[in-house]
Design brief:
With 224 residues, the chain is of the alpha/beta class. The chain has helices spanning 24-30, 35-39, 55-65, 83-91, 104-108, 112-115, 147-160, 176-185, 195-205; strands at residues 15-17, 73-77, 96-101, 118-120, 135-138, 166-172, 192-193, 210-214, 221-223. The chain has a domain at 51-138: Vaccinia Virus protein VP39 (Rossmann fold, 3-Layer(aba) Sandwich), CATH 3.40.50.150. The strands form two sheets. Strands 2, 3, 4, 5, 6, 7 and 8 form a seven-stranded parallel sheet that branches. The chain has a two-stranded parallel sheet with strand order 1-9. The protein starts with 14 loop residues before the first strand and ends with a strand.
């Protein structure tokens, strides 16, 4: 299983949080994905979203692990400010980069050099006409939906992909404490399932791409 996030920086020390660290009000604010989400407090989002260089290795992994070459079509769903797209373009200007983003605030902050190929659109409605993609990336997207929409979205990715070269991340847990930790941490997540439940969803959607399970251990979360 390919993991393009293998070089993405992860916490080296535990993140200690209180139960319900993020309130329902915080989650309501975050769902707007406006300035408060990107550049507000840590309780409502990133607490300052900037390009710190972490996407360069991810871009390189995308290109190398999925054999992207001149003329390849690369799509990043919910691309935020387009940092990953920009890095792919820097490494190989001849790769065709595309993106989608539903946040108007994020869309306004996308670099003008790639913005023409980014659509302001809900990921469930994503469409690029006749364009098919050699690689599609959807990080922290699938588990923001309910079960019905998650299946529809995965089917849509299948239809957009030339060859099932897709990479997604999924929220999972094994124990009740792990579930409570994830739910206390996440702002946009709605669907945290056990791995075998995700496999059932894959079967329903006929999904054959790559995936990475994200749980409280991966995020180094601990209750105080």
């Amino acid at each position: 299983m390919i993991n393009i996030l293998k070089d993405y920086p992860q916490p080296t020390q535990p993140r200690y949080i209180k139960k319900n660290f993020r309130s329902f009000s915080d989650k309501l604010i975050a769902n707007h994905k406006d300035e408060r989400f990107y550049n507000g407090s840590r309780s409502t989002g990133y607490g300052g979203y900037r390009d710190d260089g972490r996407w360069k290795k991810v871009a390189l992994n995308c290109i190398q692990d999925y054999n992207l070459i001149d003329g390849s079509n690369f799509l990043h769903v919910n691309c935020d400010y387009g940092f990953l797209l920009s890095e792919v373009k820097k490494i190989n200007p001849n790769i065709n980069v595309f993106g989608s983003e539903y946040s108007e605030y994020a869309y306004k902050n996308i670099n003008s050099s790639i913005k023409d190929n980014v659509k302001l659109i809900d990921p469930r409605a994503i469409s690029f006409g006749d364009v098919k993609f050699d690689l599609i990336i959807a990080l922290s997207v699938v588990y923001t939906f309910n079960i019905y929409d998650a299946i529809l979205f995965l089917k849509k990715l299948n239809n957009l992909s030339k060859n099932n070269k897709i990479f997604i991340t999924l929220a999972t847990y094994n124990t009740k404490e792990e579930l409570d930790l994830f739910n206390s941490w996440t702002l946009l997540g709605n669907l945290c399932l056990k791995k075998e439940e995700w496999y059932e969803i894959f079967a329903e959607a006929n999904y054959k791409g790559d995936y990475l399970f994200i749980d409280s251990n991966y995020l180094s979360l601990k209750f105080k």
